[in-house]
Known about the structure:
Blueprint: H1 15-21, H2 28-47, H3 49-56, H4 61-64, H5 70-86, H6 94-113
Protein name: Ubiquinol-cytochrome c reductase complex assembly factor 5
Transmembrane segments: 66-85
InterPro entries: UQCC5
Amino acid sequence: xxxxxxxxxxxxxxxxxxxxxxxxxxxxxxxxxxxxxxxxxxxxxxxxxxxxxxxxxxxxxxxxxxxxxxxxxxxxxxxxxxxxxxxxxxxxxxxxxxxxxxxxxxxxxxxxxxxxxxxxxxxx
Length: 124
């Protein structure tokens, strides 16, 4: 196996660079942009020490890895669902609006299919 070399400054050999070396990608500039995005993302996470420190407080890193955040998001989803069912904004909840809109769509579909004929008011 051949040893990989850096093509642009600061970039390591990546799948994009392999495609370039095989002739699939036309320009080195495309390769540099693709690897720059990944290196930018990596540097962004390395710089945000505050976020990394906050995430380190969540237990279970060794045993569960990234899956340790699932219970948190499960609880957030449950709270959002409870809010949509029980919290009234004005006189309606989210599900009241959903049921009304669904009923309106079904009524319009029946009119379009010809199952319901609207009677026009008599001329005066």
